[in-house]
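Bit of a strange request maybe. I'm writing a small parser for structure token strings and I need a real example to test against, not something I typed by hand. Could someone generate the tokens for this chain?
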Amino acid sequence: ADANPDDVDAQLAAADTELALDRVDAAFARLVSAVARTDGADRDRVREHLVGLFELFPPDDQRVTAARRALARALF
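Reply from user aminoacidic:
Good idea to test on real output. This should exercise your parser:
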């Protein structure tokens, strides 16, 4: 995924792997970056995946809060 940042499937898989390895911040950052780089259906797909990952954590988790802010900046 690092070698091909425009490969959406690779970014999603890498983020899932990072999450499984308890590298939550890295997973969120990877997907926020992918949202910023993509558009259209790819952007929606990455955004939806990221929002789905947020749901795995309590809403007041600081990592989620920070990633939501970063996502908002990437979208707007």
